[in-house]
């Protein structure tokens, strides 16, 4: 297999001759630009996913939010539409269950065809859809365990699979970011979430396997592993136990839990050409939790 060519759609600092440009020495803005690119975000109907959609727009990319919710969160999606309009960019929403392979493949093919027709080809995905559940391991019903794995592992697998297929077929050297969690590396104090933790460790290993297989096409695959983020998912956990907040804060080196905005720059970094030598890696962004004993 021939080695992948250097990504070419980047602008140059004036001092560098065009023949010598690489993603690594492109202008600062180009390193973090998603201009002329379309990114799909699963779980893009609310929470972290819809916030990352705004990050893609801010980096100059078009974005497609995909979620099992019939409609995205009204307020956040209206803000996305306003940003897109003001910037001459595109945002759209697709209702789709990522575990329904037949429907998901069809939706991804449509998205790629539409993206190609707008001059901003499909360039990458953020696999952000996920579910959580807190049950002691000795009581965990197998059906619930399997349901968590189906969405978090199989759904992430399908997202990456169809994103890579489109890129391979169209010759695009893009980037796939899979949202894992610090829970893929540690067992959280106060949480009995064995299925979720298992699923996130699986996502981190899946990343290395995909990176190994798709590096030959110039496709990069990395995981972004957040610590605690104040979203509906975390609020649901906090509501189950009044002691959890103090337990979480005990490991918060920066004296706060994360906000969805904290993950915008890390996600854009992993998608954009500036991280062109990074694949098969995990970027942990956890406010110091995993460094705290
Ligand atoms: N909130 C946290 O503290 C935290 C920490 C680490 C990692 N994460 C991860 O971040 C990601 C986003 O979580 P969040 O906190 O925004 O939670 P959230 O519940 O607000 O958002 C998750 C989204 O995924 C969607 N989804 C669920 N199943 C789906 C399916 N089968 N098909 C399509 N969409 C589906 C949901 O409808 C929802 O919109 C998840 O992967 C989660 O595991 C969250």
UniProtKB/TrEMBL annotation:
Belongs to the short-chain dehydrogenases/reductases (SDR) family. SUPFAM superfamilies: NAD(P)-binding Rossmann-fold domains (SSF51735). It comes from the Eukaryota. It comes from Aulographum hederae CBS 113979. It holds the Pfam family adh_short_C2. InterPro entries: NAD(P)-bd_dom_sf, Sc_DH/Rdtase_CS, SDR_fam. PROSITE patterns: ADH_SHORT (PS00061). This is Short chain dehydrogenase. Keywords: NADP, Oxidoreductase. Signal peptide: none annotated. GO terms for molecular function: oxidoreductase activity, acting on NAD(P)H, oxygen as acceptor; oxidoreductase activity, acting on the CH-OH group of donors, NAD or NADP as acceptor. PANTHER family: BENZIL REDUCTASE (PTHR43008), OXIDOREDUCTASE (PTHR43008:SF9).
